[in-house]
Amino acid sequence: MNRKQLVSLSVGFVLALVLIAAAIVFVGKVLLAPAQESPTAAQDRPKVAPADYAKYSVESGDITTDLKDNHYVVVNFTIVADSAQAQDFLKKNLFLVQREILGVLSECEAEEFKTDDGLRSVEERVAQRLDSVVEGGHVVKVFATKKIVQ
Fold first, then answer.
1. What is the DSSP secondary structure assignment for residue 46, as one 8-state letter?
2. In terms of domains, do 54 and 32 share one?
3. Least buried of 7, 24, 61, 116, by fewest C-beta within 10 Å?
4. CA–CA separation, 116 vs 7, rounded Å?
5. How is residue 135 annotated by DSSP?
6. Chain-centre distance for alpha carbon 69
7. pLDDT in tens, 20-79
8. Same domain as 31, residue 57
9. Does 43 fall in a domain?
C-alpha cells in the first residue's frame, strides 16, 4: 500500500469511530435517560397532606370487570387530586376515569387483590394511569375502598 491509501484508510477508521461514538451517545441520552430521570411516577406527583385528602377526592363508583386470569372483581376507588381544578376534571369526566381504571384492571390477576402489597400496586398503577389524563392538576393518591374478588 502506498502512503495515500494508508491515509484514506486511517481517515475512514476515524470517521467510523466517530459515527459509532455518536450513536452510543444518542442511544444513551434519548432512550435511556428518561427512565433514569423519573424512577417512579409517585415521586413526581405533588404531595397533599392526608388531612386534605377528603377536600379533593372523587369516588369512582363501583366497577365490575373480569381480570386477566378469568376472575371477576368489584372495586371502588377514592381518587385524591391536588387541586380543585383536577378534582372538577375527574368529576366531569367520570366515564373516562372508569375507562382508565378498567384498562388497569384488565391487566391484573386476582392474587394482586388478596395481599396488601398487591392492592397497593394496583392503586399505584391506577394513580399513574389517571395522572396521565387529568387536566389542571395531578392525581396524588388512589385508595381502593371496596373490593370483592370472585
1. P
2. no
3. 116
4. 68
5. S
6. 22
7. 887 787 776 766 655 444 445 555 666 777 777 888 999 999 999 999 999 999 999 999
8. no
9. no
Nearest to 108 by CA among 117, 119, 96: 119
Q: Are residues 125 and 102 in the same domain?
A: yes
Contact 143, 76 (CB under 8 A): no
Report residue 110 as a C-alpha cell. Answer: 386476582
Task: Read off the pLDDT of each residue in 2-19 and give the average, rounded to a whole number.
Answer: 81
Cα distance from N-terminal residue to C-terminal residue, the chain: 79
CB atoms within 10 A of CB 105: 21
Same domain, 19 and 61: no
Total Cβ atoms within 10 A of residue 144 = 17
* Other Cβ atoms within 10 Å of 18 Cβ, number: 10
pLDDT one-digit tens code per residue, 106-149: 999 999 999 999 999 999 999 999 999 999 899 999 999 999 99
Number of domains in the chain: 2
- Answer yes or no: do 22 and 56 share one domain: no
CATH number of the domain where residue 70 is located: 3.30.479.30
- The answer to whether 133 and 100 are in contact (CB under 8 A) is yes
What residues contact residue 129 under an 8 Å CB cut-off, 6+ apart? 100, 101, 103, 104
